[in-house]
């Protein structure tokens, strides 16, 4: 299979890099015009020389010849050349002071002589033409030396490494994954190597070139060098045995400098790109994941130049198993005691004090240890931006729960999670689901909305203390609902005496002129008010009451609520910590025959009321009156407190596709632990 066709593709723009120690030009903007003759070194000039001596030889002598060019060819020219050496270079190298050009010629050469060069020292020679040009390399630094030979002992550290390759991404072949790579490490040295994966099989797949390399070709090693630059990983210019010529294709070439790090090898018009450059960083190694990022590298393309491949483009994973996210392994966590707060769960129908931990590496990343189960590492992870309130939830998290013996995973429900920066309330929209062996969601179990009071261990922490009784007097806009529709109504709060407030209007006019007055008790020591189960005006002779209500379980109780002004300026009612149940509404009820309570309006009043000012708001319209007869009977009871669960016992339902379009698939009933059920899923 041919992945790409180089003969039909050619790159049309050139970002040039220039060779430094071991190069041609990166994001270069000319700083001015040509100075005089504009003498420069062409981009093809080699700048790094590792000399070799024969056995028994202690000193070397020889020459290095460099090509030189000028922007003009008119007239003969002796171009002045300035030179500086690193320590000791003056006694080893002889460099001419001028380079001569013949009339009509824009090319020439210069020769550097060396003698008494001993093994070990590495010399830098910087050459600068006085009459240069900012458009190319009028300054060049050579690195020359006879390095001492080290006999490395190579040890295999991986036989199944994964290499993410993008060498031909400029032609559309992106992130080609090469598996089964053997990687070796030099004993006692921070050097790694692996044989070039750019072999005949690779070239056949990419270019349809089945026999590019001869059968006896020895594929070179790519060496990841962590010794040259401490804490960074460098790849020296490497001849991979082929040359890609832009617009023509790939060819066998044993000497062509194909690939290497940008830093340490290339330069811009401003000079060499050093190892600390942040635009073109050297490679790095994540020891937890055993993952190399090879950093910013180049692909030297014939007819084009050095193509830039940014950091993150090439990776080498020594242990493929570590590529899967493991937030316990990949991050370190610290307790945030001040964030511990009250967690209210729609999934379990319970609430509890939940601890929070924060990542040391990412201050926006948090986890709730053992949120739903006591299973080891059954933590819940999420990101929250404390300034914007944005919340994101990583997918595929293990809850530690099972259903019918199958693992239950959780992910965020789109657009359902948020953080209220004013009140410190974290809302988590979660979807619990089953997954196949590849981790793909195959069946939703349940969607819930969970609530966490950040740093507030009781709902009472939501309420301001010290509020005066007169601050409650006035108009408020509660929301009433029946679970499917509803709206805001106008409620009037009046002061009855020093400790009592009356509230009228909570039935929204649904009962006509019925007197729906309820009473709140004010506590001067806290500034809070309290609502308790109470009898209201009878209706048609029947006993009528107003009580707290749980809209999820359809249960009412004789328990009560505390109320106060929250940080958003709303009048909010919260559960008494002594309540056995959890309640989110108030409801008017009547008992027609002593057999049980029925809702008087079919609606309930929610527990957060917005302030109303006639000068800034329009009075909301009341609901149309409804007739008696469609009332729902409610049960009296309590919601139990939390205990850790291990089994949900929720049957899967077809997966709801949240994107456009559906595809019919069949769900394997074996995932349900033997349940004799097949589901047709919309994906």
Write the layout of secondary structure elements.
Layout: E1 18-19, E2 39-40, E3 48-50, E4 59-70, E5 77-85, E6 93-94, E7 98-101, E8 107-118, E9 122-129, E10 139-145, E11 154-165, E12 176-186, E13 191-195, H1 200-207, E14 221-225, E15 242-245, E16 249-252, E17 259-261, E18 266-268, E19 271-272, E20 284-286, E21 291-293, E22 297-301, E23 305-309, E24 315-317, H2 327-330, E25 333-335, E26 341-345, E27 350-354, E28 357-359, E29 365-368, E30 380-384, E31 391-392, E32 397-403, E33 406-412, E34 418-420, E35 425-435, E36 441-453, E37 474-477, E38 479-481, E39 486-488, E40 491-497, E41 500-504, E42 518-523, E43 528-531, E44 534-539, E45 542-550, E46 555-557, E47 561-565, E48 571-575, E49 585-591, E50 597-599, E51 604-606, E52 608-612, E53 633-636, E54 664-667, E55 679-682
Parallel strand pairs: 3-10, 46-53
Antiparallel strand pairs: 1-18, 2-4, 4-8, 5-7, 5-9, 6-8, 9-10, 11-12, 11-24, 12-13, 13-14, 15-16, 17-22, 18-19, 20-21, 21-24, 22-23, 25-28, 26-27, 26-36, 28-29, 29-30, 30-31, 32-33, 33-35, 34-35, 35-36, 37-40, 37-52, 38-39, 38-51, 40-41, 41-42, 42-43, 43-47, 44-45, 45-46, 45-49, 47-48, 48-52, ...
């Amino acid at each position: 299979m041919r992945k790409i066709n180089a003969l039909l593709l050619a790159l049309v723009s050139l970002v040039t890099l220039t060779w430094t120690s071991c190069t041609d030009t990166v994001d270069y903007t000319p700083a001015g015009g040509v100075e005089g003759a504009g003498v420069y070194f062409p981009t093809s000039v080699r700048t790094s020389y590792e000399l070799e001596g024969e056995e028994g030889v202690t000193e070397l002598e020889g020459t290095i010849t460099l090509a030189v060019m000028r922007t003009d060819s008119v007239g003969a020219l002796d171009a002045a050349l300035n030179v500086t050496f690193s320590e000791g270079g003056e006694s080893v190298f002889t460099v001419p002071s001028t380079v001569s050009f013949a009339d009509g010629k824009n090319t020439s050469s210069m020769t550097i002589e060396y003698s008494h060069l001993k093994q070990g020292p590495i010399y830098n020679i910087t050459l600068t033409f006085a009459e240069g040009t900012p458009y190319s390399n009028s300054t060049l630094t050579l690195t020359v030396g006879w390095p001492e030979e080290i006999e490395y002992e190579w040890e295999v550290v991986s036989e199944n490494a994964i290499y993410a390759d993008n060498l031909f991404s400029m032609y559309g072949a992106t992130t080609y994954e090469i598996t089964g790579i053997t990687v070796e490490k030099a004993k006692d040295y921070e050097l790694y190597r692996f044989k070039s994966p750019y072999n005949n099989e690779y070239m056949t797949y990419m270019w349809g070139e089945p026999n590019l390399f001869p059968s006896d070709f020895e594929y070179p090693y790519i060496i990841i060098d962590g010794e040259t630059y401490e804490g960074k990983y460098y790849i020296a210019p490497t001849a991979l045995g082929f040359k890609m010529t832009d617009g023509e294709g790939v060819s066998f070439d044993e000497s062509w400098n194909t690939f290497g790090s940008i830093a340490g090898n290339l330069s811009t018009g401003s000079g060499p790109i050093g190892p600390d450059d942040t635009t073109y960083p050297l490679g790095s190694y994540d020891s937890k994941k055993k993952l190399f990022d090879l950093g910013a590298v180049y692909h030297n393309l014939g007819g084009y130049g050095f193509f830039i491949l940014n950091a993150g483009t090439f990776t080498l994973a020594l242990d493929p198993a570590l590529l899967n996210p493991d937030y316990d392994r990949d991050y370190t966590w610290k307790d945030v005691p001040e964030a511990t707060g009250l967690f209210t769960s729609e999934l379990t129908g319970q609430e509890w004090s939940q601890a929070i931990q924060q990542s040391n590496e990412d201050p926006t990343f948090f986890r709730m240890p053992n949120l739903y189960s006591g299973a080891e590492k059954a933590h819940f992870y999420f990101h929250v931006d404390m300034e914007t309130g944005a919340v994101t939830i990583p997918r595929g998290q293990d809850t530690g729960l099972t259903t019918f013996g199958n693992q239950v995973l959780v992910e965020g429900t789109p657009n359902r999670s948020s953080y209220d920066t004013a009140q410190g309330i974290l809302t988590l929209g979660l979807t619990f689901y089953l997954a196949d062996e590849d981790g793909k969601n195959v069946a939703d179990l349940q969607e819930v909305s969970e609530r966490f009071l950040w740093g507030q261990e009781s709902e009472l922490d939501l309420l301001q203390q010290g509020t005066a009784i007169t601050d409650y007097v006035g108009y408020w806009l509660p929301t009433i609902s029946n679970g499917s529709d509803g709206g805001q109504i106008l409620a009037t709060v009046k002061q009855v005496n020093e400790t009592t407030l009356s509230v009228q209007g909570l039935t929204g006019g649904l009962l006509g002129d019925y007197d729906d007055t309820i009473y709140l008790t004010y506590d001067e020591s806290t500034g809070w008010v309290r609502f308790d189960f109470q009898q209201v005006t009878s209706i048609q002779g029947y006993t009528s009451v107003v009580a707290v209500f749980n809209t999820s379980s359809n249960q009412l109780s004789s328990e009560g609520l505390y109320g106060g002004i929250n940080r958003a300026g709303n009048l909010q009612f919260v559960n008494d910590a002594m309540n056995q149940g959890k309640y989110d509404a108030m409801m008017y009820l009547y008992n027609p025959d002593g057999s049980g309570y029925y809702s008087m309006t079919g609606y309930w009043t929610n527990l957060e009321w917005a302030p109303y000012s006639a000068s800034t708001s329009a009075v909301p319209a009341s609901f149309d009156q409804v007739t008696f007869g469609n009332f729902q009977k409610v049960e009296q009871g309590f919601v139990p407190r939390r205990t850790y669960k291990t089994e949900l016992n929720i049957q899967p339902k077809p997966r709801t596709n949240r994107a456009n379009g559906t595809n019919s698939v069949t769900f394997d009933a074996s995932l349900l632990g033997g349940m004799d059920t097949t589901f047709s899923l919309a994906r």
